[in-house]
Amino acid sequence: MPEETPLRVAVIDRELCNPDRCTHECQRFCPPVRMGIPCVEFIDGEPIIREELCIGCGICVKKCPFEAITIVNLPKALETNLIHQYGMNQFRLFRLPAPIKDNVLGIVGRNGTGKSTALRILSGNLIPNLGDYSKEGDPDKVLDFYRGEQLYYYFRDLYSGKLRIAYKPQEVYLLPKAVKGRVKDLLDKAYESGDIDYVVDTLNLRKTLSRDIKELSGGELQRLAIAATTLKNADVYLFDEPSSYNDIFERMTVAKFINQLSRGKYVVVVDHDLAFLDYLSDYVTVVYGEPGAYGIFTRIESVRTGINIFLDGYIPADNIRFREKPIVFTSIAQKHKPETYPALKYTNLRIKLGDFELRVRDGEIMQGEVLGILGPNAIGKTTFIRILVGELTPDEGEILIAPERMAYKPQYISNEYDGTVEDFLKENVGEEATSRWAVNSLLKPLNIYNLLEREVKNLSGGELQKVYIAATLLKDADIYLLDEPSAFIDVEDRLEVASAINRFIKLNKKPAAVIDHDLILIDAVSDRLMVFEGEPGRLGIGGTPTNKREGMNKFLSLVNITLRRDKHSGRPRINKPGSRLDREQRERGEYYYVT
Ligand code: ADP
Ligand code: ADP
Ligand code: MG
Ligand code: MG
Questions:
Q1: Residue 582 in 3-state DSSP?
Q2: Per-residue pLDDT averaged across 359-369, rounded?
């Protein structure tokens, strides 16, 4: 059988490409160019790669000093599934999921694989060009393309104005720039139907009503955007990353709220919190691919199958492997046994900061143990860690045993640094920050190896977070303290952070404390748990660390959910309220999975 020519995808990252600062290696070393074939050309000083002439040798990829080029071969058959391409040598989206009426469709996948692009297409804000990027997208062509398929009816109704859309975009932090005024005014303006009091109370916005939008915290802004979206009288509700900035309590509230919305409607949700997405979705589709280069949607699956496909990195129906290794939760964590002597120990602590008071019950972190810390926002978790590292002095109580060298990743990280990622890592860790061992065991798995030359100032939020995590874990320290390591990073990197913590800290028998709102991350790394409760902004009470079962039970009863464990992947799953397992576990007082 003759070998089929693959579909060649050549992508140039225009932010990395800097033709004034190189010697046009992509063109000079290109074998076809050397034979007189214009595979790489410079037009207006910018390179373009002609995919139909490219032989896929990958020499330009290696020679480019900025690592700006990606070349991949995809199955030819995908060509007919090209939905949108942003331009010459730019990102391509293959396939699109069809929303399902009366149901919530969850979308999971890496950053830069086209999730927001897909939502913009489903919202009608972006008419897909089906690969012909020389022209604007044309609704008639889209309808022709989908004739006979489910999406035909969706787009027909969308383009004829029959489907009304409510869309919460990803970037809620842009909201205060776009709208001015008080929270109440914005909600009144957005209001079309529904019970505004119910929405305000469920999303815990009552206290913010008379505040100015620009004074809101990230979580409040997110919930306001969700509220305004759901108060629209729409047929389709699209939510792009609704869990961001919200604490774990608020995430559960938002999940229940969005799940209830679907009657008679289409609901689509993109998110990186797997427990959240698992809980609120009725179906899941995975998008995989090469970030920045292309993304491919899988078919729509049941929630469990979809998430397991994502974790396995393998689509059985198509026999496609999109990640070398599956993501597993339990292996290292289970083999690991912490010591029985404390690495850190403190008495009852008390501190008053302005109107806020924190009380922490005495406790210790054992040598070799990872202490997971859970609680709502503004309850004193960060304050507690800052006491441990000596940034704050408690009014009462003391640290009895303090490890000498502490590696601390603060919650708020800054990109104000003059220099590259490599400079930053070496300055914080030393020369060994880029040793072969560090590269293979951390920088590559976290996908920051290819960022070493980039300026820290120009990193995205997720990239910056990963660089800070690496700079912390690579330090030779006696204890590791990580405050919200999953913030801004995508689902795959979160799971990679969990396994890096397991590899780096547990295998070296170091102690650590990790604050996070991602339940799956906390479940995957923690040996014991510390739960904070109280009244956010007023009084926080940090409990004594307990074993995981006890800690989870306490926490889950506070958020009022029960968990079971997926047999295939070992990940915790939230039971649907009122389901058989939910009722049984509640009766027994076992909110946490029973193994
Ligand atoms: P995700 O939401 O999965 O993170 P996006 O859909 O936002 O991904 O983006 C996918 C890719 O498309 C990214 O590489 C992004 O840089 C690129 N992209 C997004 N919008 C545009 C645009 N208007 N022009 C060119 N490229 C774009
Ligand atoms: P968490 O990490 O649980 O979200 P924090 O420990 O950051 O909470 O903060 C707890 C509360 O203490 C918040 O209401 C915060 O505004 C307040 N707070 C923190 N630091 C100070 C300070 N230096 N002065 C006054 N209030 C503070
Ligand atoms: Mg996005
Ligand atoms: Mg905090």
A1: helix
A2: 96
Digit-coded pLDDT (tens) for 277-301: 999 999 999 999 999 999 999 999 9
The separation between the first and the last C-alpha atoms of the chain, rounded to the nearest angstrom, is 52
Asked, for residue 355, whether it belongs to a domain, the answer is: yes
Query: Ligand 4 (ion): which residues have CB within 5 A?
Result: 381-382, 411
d(CA 375, CA 545): 13
Ligand 1 close to Cβ of residue 292 (< 6 A): yes
Gap between the Cα atoms of 68 and 449, Å rounded: 14
Into how many domains does the chain fold? 4
Ligand 2 atom nearest 384 alpha carbon: 6
| Residues 264 and 127 grouped into a single domain | yes
- Kindly give the number of the ligand 2 atom that is closest to the alpha carbon of 379: 3
Q: What is the pLDDT of residues 470-485, one digit of tens each?
A: 999 999 999 999 999 9
Q: How many angstroms separate the CA atoms of 95 and 83, rounded?
A: 6
**Residue 15 confidence class, pLDDT cut points 50, 70, 90:** confident
The pLDDT tens digits of the residues spanning 56-65 come to 999 999 999 9
What is the domain-level CATH number for residue 187?
A: 3.40.50.300
CA-nearest residue for atom 14, ligand 1, is 292
Residues 216 and 237 in one domain: yes
Q: Which domain holds residue 585?
A: 561-595
Q: Give the span between the Cα atoms of 154 and 548, in whole angstroms.
A: 46
Q: How far is the CA of 289 from the centre of ligand 1 (A)?
A: 13
Residue 80 lies in a domain: no
- Say yes or no: 130 and 163 in one domain: yes
The reported pLDDT for the residue numbered 1 is 46
Q: Is the CB of 415 under 6 A from ligand 1?
A: no
Q: How confident is the model at residue 595 (pLDDT cuts 50, 70, 90)?
A: low
* Ligand 3 center to 563 CA (angstroms): 28
